[in-house]
Design a protein that fits this description.
By secondary structure, the chain is an alpha+beta fold. It is built from 12 helices and 13 strands. It is globular, with a radius of gyration of 24 Å. It starts with a helix and ends with a helix.
Length: 395
């Protein structure tokens, strides 16, 4: 059938599992969810009855929204509806989901409870997948029915994952779950730090909630904020580059990337990170070499706002990458050259001050003590060292 052929084509976008789950979270945030719960269940060695389920307490959908927007490709152009709107092309739920499964079930509640499935065999149908009777899902459905509103998206027939060798299926599944937590931690950092959304993985307790994290360390006293650079584009819209010199000692950021990889540009659209890390193939004008990610600039991170009016010029159709449009390259490059120059001057001055500063043994001991206390798990040797340091400071 024609619809099946369309769905098959959607599977070539190359979404990672974290990126696909973020498409579902985007929809939840767009529809005013305060809480989003992600559940990943691996059934057995074959993974036949495994499922992934995302639940929210947002606005929910009526029948028209469910059938004609969520489960089909909307005829109308997406209209931005404010700072929480994360739909760019209106196809993220379908394209993201079908990169990993062959069946999507949506259960939603607005004025009444609605249930529909979109799969390769039947298209849109009222038939529910077998796992709908799984005790875990039944428990959550009972709880969901008591909510005022919200939506559940259930992925079944996870064929892309079950194609792996049996020994790799389960471990890879839960490894992807851990990667998704890290992805959400960064992509939605503004929502987390401003306490606008709670994101949970595989549970409802505090231990399952994604902890707030700011890649720019705005509230850290050692962070240095450089001057913003505002740019307007003739084609429409404007952007602001907000550069930060992050603290030298940030500890382990637990994002699955090195500090070198995390330097550079962070592109945000409506407070949601679209793409980040590195210098996006920019470099000095008329030079063959592009700026590489190296230790020299590994404390420089720049927040860049994507113009809403021209978002589609910047964001790929799968909404996972940013490609700076030609008309913006030179202006952004010019601003970054100045930002990088300012950064090097400040870093150089800081090093010079440190070299000229007389050695203060008491200060060194205090700093060492603080570093040790930052570690939540202390061994016996470290405890003895702390005791000794305290005695020396009091002498």
């Amino acid at each position: 059938m024609k619809y099946t052929a369309i769905l098959e084509k959607l599977r070539s976008h190359g979404y990672t599992l974290p990126q696909s789950l973020a498409e579902l979270a985007d929809n939840s945030i767009t529809h005013n969810a305060k809480n989003i719960w992600v559940y990943m269940f691996w059934s057995d060695d074959t993974g036949k009855n495994s499922f992934i389920m995302v639940v929210d307490d947002g606005d929910g959908m009526n029948e028209d929204e469910l059938i004609n927007r969520a489960l089909t490709f909307p005829d109308q152009e997406n209209i931005d509806k404010g700072e929480n709107n994360h739909s760019v092309y209106g196809a993220g739920l379908k394209t993201g989901s079908f990169n990993h499964c062959r069946s999507i079930t949506i259960i939603t509640k607005k004025n009444k409870l609605l249930k529909k499935t979109l799969n390769f065999k039947d298209g849109i149908t009222s038939n529910m997948p077998n796992c709908i009777n799984h005790r875990f899902i039944k428990t959550h459905l009972e709880r969901f029915e008591k909510q005022k509103s919200g939506t559940i998206v259930l992925w079944t027939d996870l064929d892309r994952i079950t194609q792996l060798r049996a020994v790799d299926r389960g471990p890879n599944f839960y490894d992807d779950c851990d990667k998704s937590k890290k992805h959400f931690k960064l992509v939605y950092h503004k929502y987390l730090t401003e306490n606008k959304v709670n994101l949970y993985f595989n549970g409802t307790e505090e231990i399952n909630r994604t902890k707030a994290f700011d890649p720019f360390y705005r509230n850290n006293s050692e962070t240095i904020k450089l001057e913003n650079s505002e740019i307007s584009f003739l084609k429409g819209g404007s952007t602001i580059l907000k550069p930060y010199i992050i603290p030298k000692d940030t500890g382990k950021e637990n994002l699955g990337k090195s500090k070198n990889d995390l330097q550079g540009l962070y592109f945000l659209r409506n407070n949601r990170v679209i793409d980040y890390g590195g210098w996006f193939d920019l470099g000095e004008k008329n030079a063959d070499r592009i700026w590489a990610s190296n230790e020299r600039f590994n404390r420089l991170r720049v927040e860049v706002t994507i113009p809403i009016e021209t978002s589609k010029d910047w964001i790929t159709t799968d909404k996972t990458k940013v490609i700076i449009p030609g008309y913006a390259e030179n202006k952004i490059r010019k601003s970054l050259i100045q930002i990088r120059k300012n950064y090097l001057e400040i870093i150089g001055q800081m090093r010079e001050d440190q070299e000229n500063e007389p050695v203060n043994e008491t200060l060194k001991k205090k700093n060492e003590l603080i570093r040790m206390l930052r570690n939540s798990v202390l061994n016996d040797d470290e405890l003895l060292k702390i005791e000794k340091s305290i005695k020396e400071l009091n002498e």
